[in-house]
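Researcher: Structure for this, please.
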Amino acid sequence: MIERVRTCPECGSKNIITDSKHAELYCADCGMVITENIVDLGPEWRAYDEEQASKRIRTGPPMSYRIHNKGLGTPTPKLVKSTKRLRGIISMDSSEKTLAFALGEIDRMASALKLPNDIKEAASLLYRKAVKHNLIKGRSIEELGSAVLYITCRQYGVPRTLKEIAQVSRMPLKKIRRAYIFLFKKLEIKLAPADPARYIPRFCSELGLSDATRERAIKIMREGRGTAAAKGWGPTGTAAAAIYLAAELSGELVAEKELAKVAGITPVTLRNRYNELEKWLRTNMNVLARDCSVRAII
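Model: Predicted structure, token format:
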């Protein structure tokens, strides 16, 4: 009711004052009391800084799948920290401890890869789904957590490779790939092929290349996407080849070894993808110039 009062019914003034001391709403121009006995719907306590407010507030954060109890546990602020920690550990059974450890690993790896919170939430939810289907028995928590994080990145179109996941994981690449295939089949997950164009902005940023080279690489990648998918090229190798070709066309210098290191491939793979991509664009799409120097896209 108070929020709806914008003007004084007596004089039409918009200078409405809320007097919390006398529980009244009045007009500052004519002095008419519009509403009295206002009910204060705020908290009964007062706080003068954020620390004091955090101690007195009795509502918690929103529900999160990243926490083993979804953040719905009742806090006990008056307990000593060591006692509170011990009480929390004792009240958890073995399955909750395993879930808490797994969710902590997913959060740690996602933070190391600088992934947003929605990816962390989706990965935690997918791991809970695997737990519900009894897919974690007899398998390492770390490798399943790494595989879940990679699947989530693929689902949301975030450009992260298995090698990048393995670098922040405690499991080798071979085991993570095996867990990924296992979850992919058991949970019947459908994933679209990885788009190499999504890797181009990140690679160009790490190499310090210009915006013109980045846009040209994306254009080359769109033109040659069909042949890359047909031949089964890896997304990172294809993106690196497009960047190398675009840099050459733009007149920027980029070393093969440096580009291959950023893309996580070998210089030989980069050279092969570059030659095949250039040849395909020359013969099929008539995108590149026909002279041997390869100067510009027409």
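Researcher: Any notable elements?
Model: The mean pLDDT is 80. The longest strand covers residues 16-19.
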